From TrEMBL:
UniProt name for this protein: EVE domain-containing protein
UniProt cross-references to SUPFAM superfamilies, sorted A to Z: PUA domain-like
InterPro entries associated with the record: PUA-like_sf (IPR015947)
Organism: Nocardioides pini
Domain of life where this protein originates: Bacteria
Length: 146
């Protein structure tokens, strides 16, 4: 029996998308500190984490509806090495202005964005190259180097 086709391959990866809860005090502290001292993110070991390599783009999605911290993309960065033992090495920097969920929902080119279709999915999620291009067009800060 042939192995099922994977949703994600190196060719279909535009960026990793890791998630954090807006209700978690650590999320607010990381944002306040500009992610100083953050050098990794928890990731569920799957075939996806086997694809992690240094230099890949990373987006940070904050979930929830906390006052002053709406759901959306709040940081960008890149991987700094392969994922191991449920840990994805990253460097992150906050966006000047987050790209909010409310701006993404209903966008015709982002209807298949995994974090919108399956918000409770585990880390890491992903963004396709085409979706990443749309996101960069909506938020210039996503294209700046980490």
């Amino acid at each position: 029996m042939a192995a099922p086709a994977r949703a994600l391959t190196p060719a279909t990866l535009g960026a990793w998308l890791v998630k954090a809860s807006g209700a978690a005090p650590s999320t607010r502290e990381h944002l306040r500190a500009g992610f100083a001292g953050v050098d990794s993110w928890c990731a569920r070991p799957t075939y996806r984490t086997d694809l992690v390599a240094a230099g890949q783009p990373v987006l940070l999605w904050v979930s929830g509806s906390e006052p002053g911290l709406p759901a959306g993309i709040h940081a960008r960065g890149q991987t700094t090495g392969p994922a191991r033992d449920g840990v994805m090495p990253v460097v992150l920097v906050p966006l000047d202005q987050p790209l909010l969920r409310s701006e993404l929902v209903g966008h015709p080119d982002l209807a298949a964005l995994e974090v919108l279709r399956m918000p409770a999915g585990s880390n890491p999620s992903y963004v396709t190259p085409e979706q990443l291009a749309v996101l960069v067009g909506m938020c210039e800060g996503l294209s700046r180097p980490a």
